[in-house]
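> call design_seq(struct)
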């Protein structure tokens, strides 16, 4: 194994020890390895600001590997974030004396326009569903505020119907949390289990949602289901699964729940992350 791979493997171990999510543990070192291979650096102490700036410019002009398009701002920003975490680790562990990325200014990506759906639009989505599976999917992302990977990893044993609780075993940053569910949500999730789900034994007996091949549903399949439902409504805008999570957070704040409750409900580590939704809510009040 060459020195570049040795260095990124050590970085991966560091991320694992800090409790980063599995996707970050794989993605961040991969971005760093791409950078090291581009600048052809064998040792961390050889890296300077000029090389980082050159790599950043390269990302601005590089084409997507599978599409003939430029890299997205969010992808470039993710690479920058990977390097910032990497150099911080090198500095903290004494592998470099000064952090070469600390004084470099990078272009900030445009913020995603993720306006929450109104309660009327949420009702439209539920009214457009065709079966108990579609209803259950909307409940997981809206009523329970799950992230896409959390829904994908959900098992039937994670929902305790007698206690009205849904357990997220491994959320972002490997965090666990418990989500209270209403009687209505419990009833409709259970309806799916006793009708659509029970007819599919499946290869993965534990998975809560199964696809048409009787395998655990993946994130893109949830997206396709949402788009299918959306096409049957009068909602003329692009929405994603995260819009549903964003919407329930805003609606809970509108109903007077504390920002601390919403933080725990969403599984945020820091209150600052939840305050984004509070800002959206205040913005809506101003418009009204």
């Amino acid at each position: 194994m060459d020195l570049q791979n040795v260095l990124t493997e050590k970085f991966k171990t560091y991320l694992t020890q800090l409790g980063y999510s599995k996707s970050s543990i794989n993605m961040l070192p991969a971005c760093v390895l791409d950078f090291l291979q581009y600048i052809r650096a064998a040792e961390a102490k050889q890296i300077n600001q000029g090389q980082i700036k050159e790599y950043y410019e390269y990302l601005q002009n590089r084409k997507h590997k599978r599409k003939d398009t430029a890299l997205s701002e969010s992808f470039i920003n993710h690479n920058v974030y990977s390097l910032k975490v990497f150099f911080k680790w090198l500095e903290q562990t004494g592998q470099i004396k000064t952090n070469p990325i600390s004084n470099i200014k990078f272009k900030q990506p445009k913020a995603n326009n993720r306006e929450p759906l109104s309660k009327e639009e949420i009702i439209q989505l539920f009214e457009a569903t065709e079966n108990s599976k579609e209803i259950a999917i909307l409940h997981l992302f809206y009523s329970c505020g799950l992230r896409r990977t959390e829904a994908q990893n959900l098992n039937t044993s994670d929902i305790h119907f007698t206690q009205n609780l849904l357990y997220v075993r491994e959320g972002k940053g490997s965090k666990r949390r418990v989500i209270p569910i209403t009687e209505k949500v419990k009833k409709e999730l259970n309806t799916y289990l006793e009708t659509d789900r029970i007819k599919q034994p499946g290869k993965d007996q534990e998975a809560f949602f199964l696809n048409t091949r009787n395998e655990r549903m993946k994130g893109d399949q949830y997206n396709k289901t949402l788009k299918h439902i959306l096409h049957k409504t009068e909602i003329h805008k692009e929405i994603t699964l995260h819009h549903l999570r964003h919407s329930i957070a805003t609606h809970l704040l509108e109903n007077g729940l504390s920002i601390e409750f919403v933080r725990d409900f969403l599984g945020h580590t820091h209150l600052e992350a939840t305050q984004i939704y509070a800002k959206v809510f205040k913005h809506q009040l101003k418009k009204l």
